[in-house]
């Protein structure tokens, strides 16, 4: 078992795809932008918020930031309690890992306050030792900074860490930081995408983390 596990949130711990894509589609409509499909929106999950829009609709950086602001307003309205349930076995698995002494942290593309609110709603504050949102780093995923910053915080070597996520952006973040990666197949990314990004292993359920071989 690794000393530290660095988790993505959306699509890995929380089932937020419907909330995110609904909010993106509403934002696109409100901004009068060319329509995009739910699948196209889902494929951007894991990127910094402004990039979610600019990656699927040609626009200036200023327009992308405006989209991000409108998205945040709509998201605040749509994000009612229970809108983002944990995936099966997430709570139990994280608690078991915590009890075994594994340091559990989060590295997310959502803003810190939003991430903290979900951790609070899922009553995981006692299990999560550290969390980084997109606004906590200079270079968010797929850059390796969220991982290296986390490892520096705990003085842990890359060899003793594992990044767990559901998209290529998570896998690339881990690889860019020189850390082993585990892709989850139940989230927003496809198994093929995770393999192509270079995931060291794949799991179909988060509880499988309890049975990964020792390094």
Automatic annotation (TrEMBL):
Keywords recorded for this protein, A-Z: Hydrolase
Top-level taxon in the UniProt lineage: Bacteria
EC number of the protein: 3.1.3.18
Gene3D superfamilies assigned: HAD superfamily/HAD-like (3.40.50.1000), Putative phosphatase, domain 2 (1.10.150.240)
Pathway: Organic acid metabolism; glycolate biosynthesis; glycolate from 2-phosphoglycolate: step 1/1
Gene Ontology CC annotation, any one: cytosol
Enzyme class: hydrolase
GO molecular function: phosphoglycolate phosphatase activity
Catalytic activity: 2-phosphoglycolate + H2O = glycolate + phosphate
Keyword Protein biosynthesis in annotation: no
Gene Ontology annotations of biological process type: DNA repair
PANTHER family: PHOSPHOGLYCOLATE PHOSPHATASE
Family (UniProt): Belongs to the HAD-like hydrolase superfamily. CbbY/CbbZ/Gph/YieH family.
Name of the protein this chain belongs to: phosphoglycolate phosphatase
Organism: Prevotella disiens
């Amino acid at each position: 078992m690794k000393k530290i596990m660095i988790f993505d949130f959306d699509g890995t711990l929380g089932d937020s795809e419907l909330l995110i894509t609904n909010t993106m589609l509403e934002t696109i409509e409100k901004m009068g932008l060319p329509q995009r499909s739910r699948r196209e929106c889902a494929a951007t999950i894991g990127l910094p918020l402004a990039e979610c829009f600019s990656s699927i609709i040609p626009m200036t950086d200023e327009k992308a930031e405006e989209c991000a602001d409108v998205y945040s307003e709509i998201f605040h309205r749509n994000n009612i309690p229970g809108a983002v349930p944990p995936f099966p076995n997430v709570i139990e698995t994280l608690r078991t890992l915590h009890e075994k002494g594994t340091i559990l942290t989060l590295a997310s593309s959502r803003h810190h306050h939003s991430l903290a609110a979900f951790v609070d709603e899922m009553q995981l504050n006692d299990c999560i030792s550290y969390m980084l949102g997109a606004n906590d780093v200079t270079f968010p995923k797929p850059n390796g900074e969220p991982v290296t910053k986390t490892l520096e915080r705990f003085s842990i070597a890359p060899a003793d860490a594992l990044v767990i996520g559901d998209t290529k952006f998570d896998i690339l973040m881990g690889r860019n930081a020189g850390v082993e990666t585990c892709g989850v197949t139940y989230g927003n990314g496809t198994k093929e995408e995770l393999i192509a990004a270079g995931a060291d292993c794949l799991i179909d359920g988060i509880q499988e983390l309890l049975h990964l071989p020792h390094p």
